[in-house]
Design brief:
The complex is a heterodimer of chains A (426) and B (322). Chain A has 426 residues and is α+β, with helices and mostly antiparallel strands. Chain A contains 13 helices and 7 strands. The chains are: A alpha+beta (426), B mainly beta (322).
Chain lengths: 426, 322
């Protein structure tokens, strides 16, 4: 069982840094357990596929952009993005319009969409917490405890897969079936016995009749589950965060403190190697945007558990393994975006890491060693652990510096923008 | 001046690539929906299904015995999708049965794919905890080319082209929420659940490291495709490594005098339904679930390939008198 670890594959990593008049290209590879990069060595090491786009310095201002020519969507939505954000993709069968987004906002926060009327999407995805809920594990409308932590919906339009560990969920519309209709656990609790009744709550509401007409036309049959899903997905896609302190720093509008700058350099450096999995403009390694030639969807085991010394993660939270049945997928989860990470505690797929300091300590140790309780096991020795998760010589000061940098990723605009707010809130 | 930093890592092998993996052509079963032979003359056919415990009719709230330990149990749920339905002649040839879409139990996509849903529980008593409705459908009504038939074959499954449609886009009966398997982006082909007396016991590790037991009410069998991955560029689920489509062939069957019995007791005859040693409560088609091999055996499926087993035939469905 211990020999099931991923074999190291040849990998070439190329770092291109474009400064004012200079291009610096560095070729490196992940070489050995110490984490030291091997410049110029022939290719050993990491089996990761990763794509990182990080703009450094520069003086671009936010521009109003129309959708690029190769976006086939025909909706009336326009994106306002800074230059380091690529254009996202809108699905051809659900192009974004302001009307759909506004309708979706109402539906997103409407508790009548749950079986017992107590929960809306916004219950687990609260704007003030960057669309998370502050709990380790989410709780459904009937009290079922979800095995996993509610994820942030910020910048979700850039995600190629959805939820913590599912290569099969590749559209927001598909993903939405799970919270709406699932039984184990029950989330919103829409089922065969109540789905007609729930829909009629929406159909009978004159404000919704007006919003659906604007979004989907005057067809009397416009209020359907399919259109509900399309509208909510459109609202979710509109939640884009690009105005953190760090984004403003990139645009020359804000300054980072000395500590934050140290943290940034550590984050992007080869010692901590955070950027390998959290290095795109969205601080993760699964991004989908217009004019891509290839979409990578890596999942990673970060050594959080090692039950019975055979690499197992707790029952019900095996990660991609639960979908694929392949032992090498044990404990693999998607690296989430780190945007707004300072306010989306607790952390990891099951919320089992309480603070950012604890997160950094786990990475510094090369995994988590649990010495008491029901999940005893040394995750640092997990045989399925990602090759890049190794013990790193990060001092407590350096860990604190990285945390300080992560705090610069909080975007107050997205947390308070009325376009994303709960219209039912008093 | 635009300033940017690009870092790209390229792995030579695709063994960690999760995009487009799983192989397969993605194309499922395409039963010939066109009636052939006999100048296009067709005859009606009604295929009746009955829930059974052994040889006895089984209804919601009846107590019946099942499991290796002969456990008193009750039915909690029974739904399944039937596709690729054919009647078989004495020379071994088979003719497809075509259905009429009725927006409730039958769907014909006009391209040769016909799917019916059988629902043998009426939400009564032991069957009422599952969010289902009271309606039942125990018959498949369709048309077949005129002829003399002695047998029947069908799949418990959903053709690939229909299996991965979102519930909100699926035509009935594929829009049944209880048969949605959204986490694997597909449908449950079969959902049979029972409630053993005393419940289903499983181990729980306590915070202090000791182990105690907990009890669930229901032992569940959910059959569906697993090992699925999607194509993020297209926004759809492309392939599933383990299809788990269950073929059924009953070589001596007369639809006018006989029905197809669904032996719920037989399904679990080799299972200890009072105990769950790992994975879901019962079996939800996971490769590593210790409760799955015994049940897959009675379904005639190989858990490790998702294909029909080489040395086991299904024993869930059997021919019984009307």
């Amino acid at each position: 069982m211990g020999n099931g670890a991923i074999k190291p594959l040849p990998t070439l990593c190329i770092l291109l840094e474009v400064y004012d008049k200079t291009v610096i290209m560095t070729a490196f590879s992940k070489s050995d357990e110490s984490g030291a990069p091997s410049f110029g060595k022939t290719l050993l090491g990491s089996s990761l596929l990763c794509l990182a786009l990080v703009a450094c310095g520069g003086s671009e201002t936010t521009v109003t952009n129309q959708s690029p020519a190769n976006n086939t969507a025909t909706g009336n939505w326009y994106w306002k993005l800074p230059s380091n954000f690529p254009y996202p993709v809108e699905p051809a069968d659900n192009p974004m319009t302001y009307e759909k987004v506004e309708l979706g906002r109402y539906l997103f926060y409407d508790k009548r969409l749950s079986g017992n009327g107590t929960q809306s999407c916004g219950t687990c995805h609260q704007q003030s917490k960057a669309f998370t809920d502050g709990l380790a594990q989410a709780v459904g409308a009937t009290g079922d405890l979800h095995p996993r932590n509610a994820q942030s919906l910020v910048n979700v339009i850039y995600s190629p897969t959805f939820t913590w560990a599912n290569p099969a969920l590749v559209s927001l519309e598909s993903q939405m079936q799970t919270p709406m209709f699932s039984e184990h656990p029950i989330e919103m609790g829409i089922n065969e016995s109540n789905k007609t009744k729930i829909l009629s709550r929406i159909q009978a509401d004159t404000h919704y009749q007006e919003l659906f007409a604007k979004a989907f036309g005057n067809d009397k049959q416009a209020i359907t589950y399919d259109n509900i899903v399309k509208a909510i997905a459109s609202f979710e896609r509109s939640i884009v965060s690009a105005d953190s302190k760090y984004d403003r720093y990139l645009q020359g509008k804000a300054q980072l403190t000395a500590q934050e700058l140290r943290g940034k350099d550590l984050f992007n450096g080869e010692k901590a190697e955070c950027f390998h999995c959290h290095g795109s403009f969205n601080f993760n390694d699964q991004v989908k945007y217009a004019s891509q030639n290839r979409i990578d969807t890596p999942f990673h085991n970060t050594g959080l558990y090692n039950l019975d010394n055979n690499g197992s993660y707790p029952q019900g939270n095996g990660g991609v393994f639960e979908l694929s049945g392949q032992s090498t997928d044990m404990g693999k989860f998607r690296a989430p975006s780190l945007r707004n990470v300072a306010i989306t505690a607790p952390y990891n797929h099951d919320g089992s890491t309480k603070t950012l300091e604890d997160v950094l300590a786990n990475y510094a140790a090369g995994g988590r060693n649990i010495t008491t309780g029901q999940f005893v096991g040394d995750g640092r020795k997990n045989p399925y652990k990602d090759d890049l998760i190794v013990r790193i010589d990060l001092s407590t000061q350096e860990q604190a510096d990285i945390v300080a940098f992560l705090r610069t990723l909080t975007d107050e605009t997205v947390l308070t923008d009325s376009r994303f707010a709960d219209p039912f809130a008093k | 001046m635009k300033i940017s930093m690009l870092s790209t890592c390229i792995a030579v092998s695709l063994s960690t690539c999760l995009v487009g993996c799983g192989g397969g052509d993605g194309d499922g079963n395409t039963g010939n929906g066109v009636n052939t032979g006999n100048n296009g003359i067709t005859q009606d056919v009604n295929i009746n299904f009955k829930a059974l415990a052994g040889d006895k009719a089984l209804a919601c709230d009846d107590t019946f015995i099942t499991g290796v330990n002969q456990t008193n149990s009750k039915l909690a749920d029974i739904h399944f999708y039937v596709s690729n339905l054919k009647l078989i002649k004495s020379d071994g040839s088979a003719e497809p049965v075509t259905l009429n879409s009725d927006n409730k139990w039958y769907y014909n996509d006009g391209k040769g794919n016909n799917v019916a849903m059988i629902d043998l529980e009426n939400n009564y008593g032991s069957c009422n905890a599952n969010g289902n409705d009271k309606d039942i459908n125990s018959v498949i009504t369709g048309k077949v080319a005129q002829g003399n038939y002695i047998g029947i074959s069908y799949d418990i499954g959903v053709p690939d082209s229909l299996n991965h449609l979102d519930i909100t886009k699926s035509p009935a009966p594929l829009d049944h929420t209880g048969l949605a398997w959204s986490w694997q982006s597909g449908k449950k082909f079969l959902k049979i659940e029972v409630k053993p007396e005393g419940g289903v016991v499983y181990d729980v590790k306590n915070a202090d490291g000791t182990v105690s037991t907990a009890t669930a009410t229901t032992f569940m069998m959910h059959l569906g495709s697993t090992g699925c991955s999607g194509d993020p560029a297209k926004g759809e689920t492309a392939t599933c490594t383990y299809k788990n489509t269950m073929p059924v062939k009953l070589t001596n069957f007369n639809p006018t005098t006989q029905s197809i019995g669904v032996d719920v007791a037989g399904l679990f005859k080799n299972s200890d339904i009072k105990r769950n040693n790992g994975g879901a409560m019962g079996c939800m088609s996971a490769l590593t679930d210790p409760e799955c091999p015994a049940i897959f055996n009675t379904l005639g499926l190989d858990l490790n390939t998702g294909l029909p087993a080489l040395n086991a035939n299904q024993t869930l469905f059997k021919v019984v008198a009307n």
